[in-house]
Amino acid sequence: MSTSPAVAAGLWKASVATALDLAAFLDQAGERVVEVCRPKRATTRGGRKTDMLDAIRAAKEALATEHLIQPRLRGEREALRVLLATRNGAVVASTAAINQLKALIVSAPYDLRVELRTLKRPTLVDLCARLRESAARSLEHRMTVRALRSTARRIQSLQAEAKDLEKEILILVRQAAPELLELLGVGPITAAQILASWSHQGGFRSKAAFASFAGVSPIPASSGLTNRHRLNRSGDRQLNRAMHTITLIGMRLDPVTKTYVARRITEGKTSRDAQRYLKRTVCRQIFKILERAERTKIGHTGELVQAA
Predict the structure, then answer these.
(1) For 59-80, how does the pLDDT look when each residue is reduced to its tens digit (9 = 90+)?
(2) What is the chain's Cα-based Rg?
(3) Sorting pLDDT into bands at 50, 70 and 90, what band is 223?
(4) Backbone angles phi, psi at 229, to 5 degrees
(5) Which listed site, 52, 183, 238, 271, has its alpha carbon 20 to 30 Å from 192?
(6) 279: closest CA among 219, 228, 226?
(7) Within 10 A of 191 (CB to CB), how many other CB atoms are there?
(8) Which pLDDT value is given to residue 8?
(9) How far apart are the first and last CA of the chain?
(10) Alpha carbon distances (Å) from 213 to 231, 240, 267
(11) Hey, how many other C-beta atoms are within 10 angstroms of the C-beta on 4?
(12) Which tens digit of pLDDT belongs to each residue from 91-123?
């Protein structure tokens, strides 16, 4: 097997599962594996296209790229990713079920609607899950009660599933990077998303590259005498969402952050500009914590090996 980027580029035409398995096999065998973006299409319509030509184009793209992309690790990172995806599915389904429950109440018979419409959501879900049908009621009333009970129980099941998954995620985060949980605004879900996107030490060549990947790097938008930057709309949007959550909590609860935002606004910046600055600062801080924690973990592992 060759150690050139063409080996990894040949995986471009494979299915996702096959490519992941083959990439892991090559990495364990000591081969160099890199990721490439989609190669440019042929400039002329009707250009030649075969699997071999596509692989060659991907290899050329890798050779011409200044900074090659390292594949993300599996193991702990993949465990966090699958738990996050499953929890997100449960949360989305729970939200859809809650909306459905409220829609059923709007069109429910009058006595049911009067009884349920003023209740808060937790009380509403609990009460609907315990509704019972009465033979003395009309068919519409009985079927509406059945629909409300079924929907409420589905909500309870999905919320319990999401809580169980969050507990598993918290255990993995504490094992991988407990330092993240000490930051203001960083909970188990946010920390897990950061770890899943960051993957491993050395995956990003610098904190600027990590900021660009997170979509928090400033984009010049100057023209004439106007000198300004705008928000970055690219990058990993889930990681960007995590950074956004951290900055929102900091702007709400942290006195130092409040003072910083107020100072930026007095300087003529908008609140969105101040938040963009905060995202970049938070991203830099998190990158340093992750890199330092990984080096410390590697150092402890080396000491244990020497002691053994």
Answers:
(1) 777 777 777 777 777 888 889 9
(2) 26
(3) confident
(4) -130, 160
(5) 271
(6) 219
(7) 26
(8) 44
(9) 35
(10) 13, 9, 29
(11) 14
(12) 999 999 999 999 999 999 999 999 998 999 999
